[in-house]
Amino acid sequence: LNREVLKRALFYGGVMGSFAVERFGTERLQSLTRAEIDGRFQVFRELTHLE
Q: 23-31: which pairs have CB atoms within 8 A and are 24 or more residues apart?
C-alpha cells in the first residue's frame, strides 16, 4: 500500500458515499453502473486535482 493507492481508495469511498445518500438504505448502490461510478470519480478528481 502506498500513498497513491490510499488516496484513490479514499476517493472511491467518497464517491460511493455520495451515491449512498441519494436514496434510503442501499437502494441507490444496488442500481449503480460502473460508468456512473467512474463519472462521479472523475468529477471528484477534477474538483480536488487528484493526480
A: none
What is the domain extent for residue 33? 3-48
- Our count of domains for the chain comes to 1
Per-residue confidence (pLDDT) for residue 51, from 0 to 100: 58
For every one of its 51 residues, what pLDDT tens digit does the chain have, with 9 covering 90 and above?
A: 899 999 899 999 999 999 999 998 889 999 999 999 999 999 988 888 755
> In terms of DSSP H, where are the helices of 1-51?
3-20, 27-30, 34-48
Q: Tell how far CA 36 is from the center of its chain.
A: 9
